[in-house]
């Protein structure tokens, strides 16, 4: 069958009610409602689908339906009516038992009129401070348990705690009300097609596996670079910083997929077991070496005369003396048979010169080059670059003979581009994840032990930074981060990619 095109069964949601807590919030408007819209448009939601918004802001069902359907434009009237028939809004405080009683009534009513079969997906899209009261409120109203043959599931946005201790506390609250198999912790990076393609490249092919280890790989660089600053999220970001906001979740998830052992299948438990094993093998440097293993930075005013960008401390909601890092880089090692001795460099930052997320495996130089050095100008080490975004695709970089009478070798590149290869379009990460949660497929969601391992890795570094009262290193907006980051990798005789 291999290689023969077959009809793939299209996935669609079962009858269910999606309940969004934080319904008047930014994430709901920007990501969740558009995802519901597209899923409905593509026929992934059944007629027996309902949507309930819960938030403190007073609003009627009609007003919420209007604001929802306003965002769900371009439909004919019958379609709008069909959707609107399943939209409700419950206004109330998250710690008020009455909110959950009214929610329970609404859900019962929807089961009766809409045929949603008692299936509920509770989506926590609130600030993290509301997670605990909402979970307790759901449990007190008995909404954490579904009746026989139905489901009750909880989707939780990040941040999942702010360190290992608080993640464990949150887990205790969650597990008091829900079993782990009812819990879907979101990392939207896992919803990206190109992140899932790391799995396809590694495990649906045979040619990469033999070179995917310490015998061939010199080192790996993972970059999540953003051109944007903190924008309007200064207040939130002040309490997060780059390490908590991006490294603890997105970067370590991508790293785990790129380095883990082959799972027997992509079924949720098998896949997540392999990620956990890999994360457990990540070694933290000892206390004395921590300073050399991680660097941070904060952007200052910069850019060009045409586009001058404010410094982080000048952004709205940011303390003018803030010590929050907007850039973080780390050197990690993985203590296992496959990766012993191979360094992994990861970095992320806001206000860098390019938006770019990639995983780059750099291979070792050949053991002997039968070519004089002066014929090798412009020859870099071989590399395989997985471009997560933008220009989604893969590059294989290698040396090729330069045309001409002499034997000169220069770096060339073989390119695979999603755009040029497929006519199919990539769904938005939230579409994919929302559909998976409705279906009950947890493969692309984070298990409790994964979250804890990720905090174990970043906690000592954050703690060290928080204790350190020396001035935070800075970098100009639109530059590639603080000079310390170059020293971090330079100490090993290596350089960051794309930093010229
Ligand atoms: C979010 C972070 O999780 O990811 C943001 O909180 C960041 O600070 C965003 O900008 C990046 O996501 P993407 O999909 O644009 O790479």
Task: Give a written overview of the molecule.
With 500 residues, this protein is α/β, with parallel strands linked by helices. It folds into 2 domains: 16-157, Rossmann fold (3-Layer(aba) Sandwich), CATH 3.40.50; 190-428 and 447-490, Dihydrodipicolinate Reductase, domain 2 (2-Layer Sandwich). Helix content is 35%, strand content 21%. The protein is built from 15 helices and 18 strands. Strands 7, 8, 9, 12, 13, 14, 15, 16, 17 and 18 form a 10-stranded mixed sheet that branches. Strand 1 (16-21), helix 1 (26-41) and strand 2 (49-55) form a beta-alpha-beta unit. Helix 1 packs across helix 13, helix 9 packs across helix 10 and helix 9 (242-259) crosses helix 14 (448-467). The longest helix is centred in the last third of the chain and has 20 residues, at 448-467. The radius of gyration is 25 Å and the shape is globular. The chain starts with 15 loop residues before the first strand and ends in a 10-residue tail after the last helix. 6-O-phosphono-beta-D-glucopyranose (BG6) binds next to loops.
């Amino acid at each position: 069958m291999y290689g023969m095109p077959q009809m793939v069964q299209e996935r669609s949601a079962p009858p269910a009610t999606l309940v969004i807590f934080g319904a008047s919030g930014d994430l709901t408007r920007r990501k969740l409602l558009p995802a519901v819209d597209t899923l409905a448009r593509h026929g992934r939601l059944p007629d027996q689908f309902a949507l309930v918004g819960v938030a403190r802001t007073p609003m009627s069902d009609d007003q919420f339906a209007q604001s929802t359907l306003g965002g769900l434009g371009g439909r004919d009237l019958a379609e709008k009516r069909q959707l609107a028939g399943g939209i409700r809004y419950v206004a109330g405080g998250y710690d008020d038992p009455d909110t959950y009683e009214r929610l329970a009534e609404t859900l019962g009513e929807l089961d009766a009129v809409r045929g949603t079969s008692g299936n509920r997906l509770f989506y926590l899209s609130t600030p993290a401070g509301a997670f605990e009261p909402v979970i307790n409120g759901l449990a007190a109203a008995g909404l954490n348990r579904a009746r026989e043959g139905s489901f009750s599931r909880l989707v939780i946005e990040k941040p999942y705690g702010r360190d290992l201790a608080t993640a464990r506390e949150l887990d205790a609250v969650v597990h008091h009300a829900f079993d782990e198999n009812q819990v879907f912790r979101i990392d939207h990076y896992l919803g990206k097609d190109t992140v899932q393609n790391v799995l396809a490249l590694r495990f649906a092919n045979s040619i990469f596996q033999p070179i995917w280890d310490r015998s061939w790989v010199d080192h790996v660089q993972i970059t999540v670079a953003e051109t944007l600053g903190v924008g309007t999220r200064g207040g939130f970001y002040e309490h997060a910083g780059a390490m908590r906001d991006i490294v603890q979740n997105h970067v370590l998830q991508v790293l785990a997929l790129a380095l883990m052992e082959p799972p027997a299948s992509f079924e949720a438990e098998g896949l997540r077991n392999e990620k956990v094993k890999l994360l457990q093998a990540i070694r933290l440097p000892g206390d004395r070496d921590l300073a050399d293993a991680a660097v941070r930075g904060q952007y200052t005013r910069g850019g060009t005369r045409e586009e001058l960008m404010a410094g982080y401390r000048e952004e709205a909601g940011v303390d003018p003396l803030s010590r929050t890092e907007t850039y973080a880089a780390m050197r990690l090692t993985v203590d296992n048979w496959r990766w012993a001795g191979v360094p992994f460099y990861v970095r992320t930052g806001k206000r860098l010169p390019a938006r770019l997320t990639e995983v780059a495996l750099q291979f070792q130089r050949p053991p002997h080059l039968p070519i004089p050095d002066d014929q090798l100008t412009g020859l870099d080490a071989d590399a395989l670059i997985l471009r997560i975004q933008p220009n989604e695709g893969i590059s294989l970089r290698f040396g090729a003979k330069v045309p001409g009478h002499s034997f000169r070798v220069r770096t060339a590149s073989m390119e695979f581009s999603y755009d040029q290869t497929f006519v199919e379009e990539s769904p938005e990460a939230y579409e994919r994840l929302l559909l998976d949660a409705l279906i009950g497929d947890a493969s692309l969601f984070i298990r409790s032990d994964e979250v804890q391992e990720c905090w174990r890795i970043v906690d000592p570094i954050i703690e060290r930074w928080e204790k350190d009262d020396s001035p935070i290193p800075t970098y100009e907006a639109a530059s590639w981060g603080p000079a310390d980051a170059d020293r971090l990798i330079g100490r090993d005789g290596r350089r960051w990619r794309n930093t010229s």
